[in-house]
Amino acid sequence: MSVDLGARPWDQLFARHVAGDTGDQITAILNQSGATDAITLSGGFPHPETFPTQAIAESFPRVLEQSVALQYSPTAGLPGLRDWFAGWLGAQEGVRPAENELCITSGGMEGIGLISRCVLDPGDRVVVEGPTFFGALVGFQRTMTQVEAVPVDDDGLDVSALERLLATSSGPVPKIVYVIPDFQNPSGLSMSVERRHALVALARRHGILIVEDVAYRELGFDGERRPSLWALGPDVVAQVGTFAKTFAPGIRMGWVAAPAELVGQLLRAKQNTDQCTGALGQLLLEDYGRSGRFDQGIAFSRKFYRERRDIMVDALRTHLPEDMTFTRPLGGFFSWITAPAHLDTVALQKQALDEKVTYVPGAAFYPDGRGQNQLRLAYSRVPDEKITEGVRKLASVLTRAGGA
């Protein structure tokens, strides 16, 4: 039921940043996730088989004995969880954050939002990868910043193109460069070691904060672990992570590891948003982590998703028209398709849905209208036997649209 506000229309009441952002794409994906009559290649959801259901059930009695379990927690996170996770990061990355350089968040998206809130003013410049995660784009758009995209290739963000942008631009130096260096959403590509070093050096020269999103970092398939940007430049990098892929997305938790000055501001901002991340989830994660099963779960997830990646890549090789390309990710959840320039993947969504298959159009991953002939596919949650069928149906739609 629509309610009349009176003399002022609703669209005049809403803030200016609401108009034109891409938040509807997230809503659409979440809505599609519950569809039972379509093969949903759109949503990058973790698979329930990777959730540590039994471990959490065993942890509950131990956790509930602690008085803090159902109480407010410190804004930075419970000391026990932060101590365990700081040690885990130190073992993985070779750098352990100090106590005032780490905060626990209510998911990775909150980390991005808090950084945006603390760093960006309307009119500031932000550089992202083109394409990039549309959830981050929404966050930056809602701060009314100027968002510019630098292209990616097989070696990740083109740092030379970023350097040229900085050299030729007459505007203020960007405050933030947002990157997903490992198994990127949406392309599945990763940044080379050489470019990681170059990006950190560039950020130091220009005084730019790198926001490193490591949502998929632990889900590599080939055993290679490239140095994180945060480990290379903890003075100029804020690492934003999520436990959605390594623990459970329903327990909303993530982290930010960053210079103490920035973390202090993030905590002030968090006190005026959700105040603190839920203590119950923090205690469950700490118990899981200290049991040793956190690393075991990651190892299982890597194998699980690698098998699904292989099924999708084989299906794309078999069914995709020859004049289209796709990425073969070395980790993560996604493959990225590029079709001939005349094909409009936004317009083809309805035809695909008529065939009972969904995807995300490429334009959602750019701040400037590019990507009309591209699309993202996710293999993470679709049943094995449905991945090939979904790709075959989608290829049929693309072929009929003139892709072959």
UniProtKB/TrEMBL annotation:
Xref: CDD domains: AAT_like
Give GO MF terms, alphabetically.
Answer: transaminase activity
For this protein, the record's SUPFAM superfamilies field holds: PLP-dependent transferases
- Keywords in UniProt for this one? Aminotransferase, Pyridoxal phosphate, Transferase
Q: Which cofactor does it need?
A: pyridoxal 5'-phosphate
Query: Gene3D superfamilies, per this entry?
Result: Aspartate Aminotransferase, domain 1, Type I PLP-dependent aspartate aminotransferase-like (Major domain)
Q: Which residues form the Aminotransferase class I/classII large domain?
A: 46-394
What Pfam families does this protein's entry cite? Aminotran_1_2 (PF00155)
Q: Write down what this protein is called.
A: PLP-dependent aminotransferase family protein
Q: Which organism is it from?
A: Streptomyces mooreae
